[in-house]
């Protein structure tokens, strides 16, 4: 009997930071936070286990997404076609580094009543929910609530990694997280020439922490660039674990100690791949600049200027859909 291959990314047990864990101790929190620190520093990507999200829920999320992409009628997809940043995007609509991404997707964002006059911008309006399958909206909303709780646990652990007194250091700017929930469908690539299309071009994610749920049957699709830039590491799904990665705002907060990691998707398999990333992001109005403790730990000089997260996000959206600045940088959530 052969044993399963050893995963190449670190594995983090988040249970000491879950509100449902009654026996967490300073020692168990410290072990988890230390492992997280190493993972964020050395890879920026890791598997998250013991997160307490029911596998029945994650399985339903992937099968509802698959159902939407493969069995909705063209009319019902067109009905939720993207308005601003929310809604369905057809294959090739999203652009990374000037090249079309060979996937279709639906984006849901936090809905905000008072957006300081941003109602007319790309983030205004309501989410566009598919009508088929009918239960998708309710199940995705339930999943969203669970993931907001998990996002809080992970940023607590990240804060703890900078000292137990700092557990809430990131949390204070994510309490009204301007989250994004995205479902993505990838048909297999037809050409071996990546210039003719890549499933999802090389990028970093823009915010705080991404929790990826991916088709368990597809291997070799999501690839993570090693810190030395020399190797692409497969981030294949492992049972009951999320693939988690850190985004640009964490890099800025940590003064580069935990850089956001470049990654891409190349799906050449025979089946249709589905993934559902959840982006746990800072508050829209959060002003992100290097934390004092992180500056001390990285030589005493601030390497990044302050940025308002919402401005950073709007720049990236402009790049993805409208060929603005973000496109040149090739950085984004897709
Ligand atoms: O589908 C995947 O595996 C990753 C997608 C991704 O990197 C993103 O949406 O930012
Ligand atoms: Fe990404």
UniProtKB/TrEMBL annotation:
One of its GO terms (molecular function) is oxidoreductase activity. One of its GO terms (biological process) is small molecule biosynthetic process. The keyword Secreted does not apply. The keyword Oxidoreductase applies. Residues 176-282 form the Fe2OG dioxygenase domain. It comes from the Eukaryota. Keywords: Iron, Metal-binding, Oxidoreductase. SUPFAM superfamilies: Clavaminate synthase-like. PANTHER family: 2-OXOGLUTARATE (2OG) AND FE(II)-DEPENDENT OXYGENASE SUPERFAMILY PROTEIN-RELATED. Belongs to the iron/ascorbate-dependent oxidoreductase family. This is Fe2OG dioxygenase domain-containing protein.
């Amino acid at each position: 009997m052969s044993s399963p291959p050893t995963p190449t990314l670190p594995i983090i047990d988040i249970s000491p930071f879950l509100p449902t864990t009654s026996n967490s101790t300073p020692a168990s929190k410290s072990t988890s936070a230390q492992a997280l620190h190493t993972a964020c520093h050395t890879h920026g990507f890791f598997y998250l286990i013991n997160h307490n999200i029911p596998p029945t829920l994650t399985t339903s999320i992937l099968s509802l997404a698959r159902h939407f992409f493969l069995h909705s009628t063209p009319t019902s997809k067109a009905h939720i076609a993207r308005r601003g940043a929310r809604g369905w995007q057809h294959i090739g609509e999203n652009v990374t580094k000037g090249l079309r991404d060979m996937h279709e997707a639906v984006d849901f964002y936090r809905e905000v009543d008072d957006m300081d006059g941003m109602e007319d911008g790309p983030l205004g309006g309501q989410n566009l929910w598919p009508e088929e399958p009918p239960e998708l909206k309710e199940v995705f909303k339930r999943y969203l609530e669970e993931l907001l709780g998990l996002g809080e646990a992970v940023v607590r652990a990240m804060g703890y990694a900078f000292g137990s007194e700092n557990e809430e250091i990131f949390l204070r700017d994510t309490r009204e997280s301007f989250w994004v929930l995205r479902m993505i469908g990838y048909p297999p690539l037809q050409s071996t020439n990546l210039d003719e299309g890549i499933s999802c071009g090389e990028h970093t994610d823009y915010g705080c922490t991404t929790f990826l749920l991916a088709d368990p049957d597809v291997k070799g699709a999501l690839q993570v660039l090693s810190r030395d830039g020399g190797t692409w590491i497969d981030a294949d799904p492992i049972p009951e674990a999320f693939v988690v990665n850190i985004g640009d705002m964490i890099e800025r907060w940590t003064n580069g100690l935990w850089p956001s990691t470049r990654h891409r998707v190349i799906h050449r398999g025979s089946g249709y791949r589905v993934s559902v990333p959840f982006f746990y992001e800072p508050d829209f109005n959060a002003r992100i600049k290097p934390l004092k403790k992180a500056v001390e730990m990285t030589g005493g000089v601030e390497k990044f200027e302050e940025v308002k997260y919402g401005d950073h996000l709007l720049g990236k959206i402009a790049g993805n859909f409208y060929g603005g600045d973000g496109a040149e940088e090739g950085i984004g959530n897709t």
